[in-house]
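Appendix B, record 7
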Amino acid sequence: MDDNVRYTIYGVLIVLAHVIWWLWRLNRTLKATPDSLKKFVTPWEPEKIREAYKNVRSAEEASRPHLRSKKGRRYVIVGGSGTVGSWIVQHLLWRGEDPQAIRILDIVAPTRPEATDLNFIKTDVADDESVEAAYNAAWPERVRNQPLTVFHCAAKIYVADASLRYLDKYVPVNVDGVRFSMEAAKKTGCDCFIATSSSSVSLLSTNWWSIAGPTNYIQLRPNSEPLLELDSDEFSNCYQYTKVLMEDLVSKANEEGFRTGIIRPGHAIYGHGTNNDNSVTWRNLRMKGGITWLKPCVMNFVHCINVSLGQLALEDRLLVDPKVSGKGYAITERPELYHNYYRVLETLGGCTFPDVQPLMMLSLAQMIEMYEWVRSYLPLPAITGDLHNLQPGMLKMCMLHVLFDSKAAAKDLGYQPAFDTLEGLCMTVKDWNEKESSKNGSIDSKSNLF
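Structure tokens (predicted):
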């Protein structure tokens, strides 16, 4: 064999060996919890989970100490049929607000029995005329002159789209919709406007393919402050970018007589009350599990009940303290291993979560994203279902280790979660199990833990 050929073969084999070693090292990194984070988390054993399930409180019992006082105001909840908005409605009723003073604006009608008799107006938040008409609708005589608080929760939530070519799918709801809502609210006398954002506004884009190892793979984000300094193409996905734009819009709208504030749920929202895939637990329970490669990841979870209580805490302070106006506050629970989340659903909910190699899923996500890029130029068949979600934009929200905290909300708003993640997950699974057992798999609206 010619020496040049031999050396070429040797060189190729050496490069190939290095690539294989590097890929093996990357996969090993993705399969492990960093030692520096292990002190923040404790694995939950099945016995601990079952004990928590046995002692779980009802949602009402857990919520009542945190509802703040009755305000005697009118309330518009934009997106009031969703996971967070529906709990705001429920909490307002529990603390004694007049049902005639509560108005739900959403594209779909509320399904919770407590909300079906409330004033609901079908509203497309991306249509300024639809929004203005909903705000201008007449109120009952006895509440017509009460001051007005608006909770704006409506959003397009989908994190797979990373390319800015998809931005037009998100701006009409996540940015323009909030602007239309604020403009209409001001015209109708609103003096307190609270928007729901996301703790993802603070996340730097993770790069798993760096030669030295993943970058931005471990992130500490106190209060989840938004990355206003980044260029538009530096964000992880269109959802994150439009939420940052929304926060800037709401903060700048703050003025005397129109106090604004922002709540940033962080990071994965779970919970019960509505059947909605925006709650990770409802989706997993409905599908009885699914493959996973996220068990080693450390991340915060937050129940939609705690998000709602954070909204009420912010309103309570906005009405008396202008120093908190124009600001955003992260609302979350303490960080946990994703493995703990899966173990609760396995122990109590009959779910299974078989492990797959993270490098395989990361590579598949890159290929799907590339295919979608080619599809924008060629008439190729669309990828549908859950597989379409598997793209880098989505993985940059969950395939990393991130620690948020609610210390700013605790200090400025007096916010405290009604329960921790273990009790919240047990409450959610118990609600699911009661519904399943009551009608053999159908939903019984009377079996909620209210």
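Remarks on this record: The two ends are 80 Å apart (CA to CA). The CA atoms of residues 195 and 448 lie 27 Å apart.
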